[in-house]
Amino acid sequence: xxxxxxxxxxxxxxxxxxxxxxxxxxxxxxxxxxxxxxxxxxxxxxxxxxxxxxxxxxxxxxxxxxxxxxxxxxxxxxxxxxx
Length: 83
Known about the structure:
Layout: E1 5-7, E2 14-16, H1 29-34, H2 36-45, H3 56-67
Antiparallel strand pairs: 1-2
């Protein structure tokens, strides 16, 4: 069974369907898909090419978020007594 892929609108990299950020350029895939026209407009306004590199601090921050620890309390299910 093949894994479904999501194509990044910014850099055209294929990502796994469940990815939050593009594995190459690190853009948030949901935002990029919802605001593609805005993304293109910003690139043109700032004279950036489609393959302009992402700032290194954004790449590092995004990777730390993807691989870092998670807060277990965010994943607890609410019960009738916790309401």
